[in-house]
Design brief:
It contains 4 helices and no strands. By secondary structure, it is mostly helical. It has one domain.
Length: 91
């Protein structure tokens, strides 16, 4: 376990992946059938994943100024910030 109480096997990039996938699914729904049920489910899931990605970027790097601003932009930048954060942790 690290200082945040997380097991070392957890991958911050998974958070960015969830955020990106939910964003793509919401955009695909909007561009095709625009089912409100899909939006009602994916909207909160995406919002939670987006928020957790930003919080994780700030906590993992300790507020490093190069990483957490990347997490503020939804989509692929979340993956980049999480990947950069995990590389910084591994040394």
């Amino acid at each position: 376990m690290n200082q945040l109480g997380l097991e070392s096997a957890s991958h911050p990039a998974d958070l960015g992946t969830v955020e990106l996938v939910t964003l793509l699914l919401m955009l695909a729904n909007l561009a095709t059938v625009h089912r409100p049920e899909v939006s009602h489910v994916l909207g909160p899931v995406h919002g939670l994943a987006y928020s957790i990605t930003i919080i994780a970027a700030v906590l993992v790097i300790g507020g490093g100024h190069r990483v957490w601003p990347l997490a503020l932009i939804p989509g692929p930048s979340s993956l980049i910030s999480c990947r950069f954060g995990s590389e910084c942790l591994s040394g």
